[in-house]
Amino acid sequence: MGAGTQIPSLDGVRALSFGLVFFGHVGYNGFIPTTFGVTVFFFLSGYLITTLMRQELANSGTVSLRHFYMRRAVRILPPFYLVLILAVFASAIGLSPSTAEPQSIWALALHWSNYYMVEHDNQGFPPGTGVYWSLAVEEHFYLLFPCLFLLICGIWQRARSRAAVLAALCTLVLAWRIALWLVVGVTAPFHRLGVATDTRFDSLLFGCALALFGNPALDPTSIAERVWKRALFPLAIAGLLVCFAIRDDGFRETVRYSVQGLSLVAIFVVAIRYP
Questions:
Q1: For residues 256 and 243, is the Cβ–Cβ distance under 8 A?
Q2: Is the distance from CB of 236 to CB of 263 less than 8 angstroms?
Q3: Lesser CB count within 10 Å: N end or C end of the chain?
Q4: How far apart are CA 188 and CA 248, in angstroms?
Q5: What separation in angstroms does the CA of 193 have from each of 45, 95, 105?
Q6: Is 96 helix (H, G, I), strand (E, B) or coil?
Q7: Burial class of residue 25 (count of CB atoms within 10 Å of its CB; 0-12, 13-18, 19+)
């Protein structure tokens, strides 16, 4: 997989995820797993970004942070701020039913909207910008993860060890969610546990771990194709179905994201290796 290579099967995964998010936000959220669509986007971002950084490290011996941040800024920030400006303008001239508030606009502009939602819900957001919370999580990821990647690769030389470090971080995030739910007793749990970066970072890290070890686009596998297709893939689908079926709030705001992350590992492997 070269730096500019597309993986068609992942384009299909992206399209399905987009469909879940889109239809969930136009009125079908009651029976469409909209949040799962966002989780898939997170996993996909972690996987692709880490795969590209892994290739750059192998080819040049390092990762240019300056080039990384410039590419992200050019790709994301112009449409990000264009939509925000249009939303604020529409609110200011009365085209939208809500009134934008300065503090919420600053939270959006500074990529802090997810933590603003924890305290204030969607209060004061221009119409349509509540979804910016997921972009805030991704922006925090883009800011922090390249440095973490270089640190991990500098300390651990084996791919298995590097992935194990990320898996340990995923476990810590799960433990943190459980602690917030059981010990701290957070209020408005969906916002605190569902949109905050510190409680959703593992959804990206699962994809990062797959990119570092057992990467289906770069690494061979010792597991037979029939095992992936007939055992691991069905098991992953079963894991997702369990997540959709269980309606208990404690499970959904703590363990659910981890089960989905583990399930997506096998789904992504099969989608890339056997499209």
A1: yes
A2: yes
A3: C
A4: 15
A5: 20, 33, 22
A6: coil
A7: middle
